[in-house]
Predict the structure of Teichoic-acid-transporting ATPase.
Amino acid sequence: MIRAEHVSKHFRLYRKPSDRLKEILLRRSYHSVHQALEDISFQVDDGQTLGIIGQNGAGKSTLLKILTGVLLPDSGRVRVSGRITGLLELGTGFNLEMSGIENIRANAMLLGMGADQIASRREAIIDFAELGEFIHEPLKTYSSGMIMRLAFAIAIHADPSCFVVDEALSVGDAYFQQKCMRAIQDFRARGGSILFVSHDMSAVKALCDHALLLEGGRIIDQGLPKDVVDHYHAMFLHRSHQGDVPVVIQRPTEHAAPRSQNSAPLAGTGEVELVKLEMLNAQGQVVEHVTSEAPLTIVAHLLAHRDLDQPHYGIGIRNRFGHSVFETNTYCMGQTPAALTAGETVRVEWRVVANLIKGDYSMTVGVGNRPYGTGSFDEILFFSHDLAMLKVEVDPDAIRYDGYFNMHPDVSIQTVG
Ligand SMILES: Nc1ncnc2c1ncn2[C@@H]1O[C@H](COP(=O)(O)OP(=O)(O)OP(=O)(O)O)[C@@H](O)[C@H]1O
């Protein structure tokens, strides 16, 4: 269990190093104060994973340093039941002149392991790191990925009760990253608590039980990973908007229930309104459920409150974890929709085949203007998730498959020997 209670931390910023000395000698202030963390409180229970997200400089590393005891908070306190380890400050305490084996001993002692414990875990650490003969070579001959292997192997074998997973994990190759993720999942299944700090929002949604969003050193949102990640994405839409009207970012208040079709958009200027969103079956009837593999038509009626010279329309389907199963927009599809005049309503009809596995899905709708790049827009007029729910049921006679969706494989089998 990890608990942070009202943790705050500031840094003094000096414009030049000599200002520190001047401050002492002249007894005048030569610094400005930067509040890196302000009143941070949360708890991660045993067997739980908390995702910490936020833009560069939001305070994530500072928070991790305080949790792991590398930095002291100005006020507030942190309580950790047991040992907290991770890859923070990758290889802190490693000696580059010493071999991998020698570093295992030194680093494990730094993490608080006793001599007997180190001796009994040594082979397991060496096996996990898979460094071959390099384990006998000095660390200065290692690549950053090899150092990460060693650091992770030691940290996960140090019997932690809390494990910090941060971007340092991405230094490893794909094979080792997957191995680490499996070890972390096992650790969680045994009751360990995990702090997961990442810019990979899909991973946050897939791995975490809860998430918190930091901005300017404060927690501006916390809750289900899916909702907090939506909020984070909405912040980017906010920033990318170049128009005159401020973007409205609205957090859904009720996590479980889908928002009504006329609720304010999650992000957008509000200059386009979603009047109606319907799903129709092959017979043109409005439905909320569909059989896997059946045709489905999604119809959005969108009312423009201002002229749009290059409008584009987007659609998305997400599963119950908030993972995007499919999304596209008319720009990505190479379409050039007609310009819209204020007061006009446009009917956008998407005809798809619901080749999805059984489950609950939700609809995303977006409207942008003036596209550029690989699917970005100068203006986002409307963008909202969870607008309508779709239940996909499985036809027992259909081809059986698992995963997210049916890729309609073509298979051939030959006897070759
Ligand atoms: N030792 C320090 N002295 C002065 N300012 C600091 C120090 N460490 C961090 N800061 C400042 O505190 C703020 C938070 O930094 P922090 O590294 O915690 O952010 P972050 O969310 O981890 O960012 P990133 O995603 O880029 O790693 C930043 O504005 C940073 O410049």
In short: The chain has a mean pLDDT of 86. The radius of gyration is 26 Å. Residues 11, 13, 34, 36, 54, 56-62 surround adenosine-5'-triphosphate (CB under 6 Å).
